[in-house]
Amino acid sequence: MNSFPSLLESIDDLDKPQIDGLLSLSSKFKNRDSESNLFTYKRPIIATSFLENSTRTKHSFAIAIQKLGAMYIDFNAETSSLKKGESLEETLLTLFHQGVNICIFRSSISHQLAQFKRSPPIKIINGGDGVNEHPTQALLDLLTLAELSKEL
Predict the structure, then answer these.
(1) Which of the residues 48, 58, 106, 123 is marked catalytic?
(2) In this structure, what are the phi and psi dihedrals at residue 129, rounded to the nearest 5 degrees?
(3) Which pLDDT does position 4 carry in this prediction?
(4) In what order do the strands lie in the sheet with 123-129?
(5) Which among 16, 28, 56, 118 is annotated as catalytic?
(6) Do the Cβ atoms of 11 and 138 come closer than 8 Å?
(7) What is the mean pLDDT of residues 91-113?
(8) pTM value?
(9) Does the annotation mark 117 as catalytic?
(10) What is the full DSSP assignment across 130-142?
(11) Which one of 43, 111, 117, 134 is the catalytic residue?
């Protein structure tokens, strides 16, 4: 699979080979033995940072992270330094320096991640941003359509 963008803000951040690679990889993960160890060396640390309330999306990510065998951190913005005026960039840099590999970020503010397009402080996956988009939901929809088309 081609290299993955450091910031997945939009489905447009992926080209067709990357999308095809993700769909193929997703199918393999979906059908793999959940007892097998996915990570040979070091388990990645993946944080979710939801600045907007969510049940379905947040828990779907948490379950997927744990099923893949990664370490999961539930970053709670309400009890973080964001409440004391720390910028989002400073917060993400702190997570990065603490060893977090990827942050899945959700916000009610559309395009909030656009400020990091050139130089993200950490690898970020958009888990939904206001009325803009939710690229992982688009990928899930594509996977579902691909699986259904095979059944026809």
Answers:
(1) 106
(2) -135, 100
(3) 86
(4) 7-8, 123-129, 102-107, 45-50, 71-75
(5) 56
(6) yes
(7) 95
(8) 0.90
(9) no
(10) TTS--HHHHHHHH
(11) 134
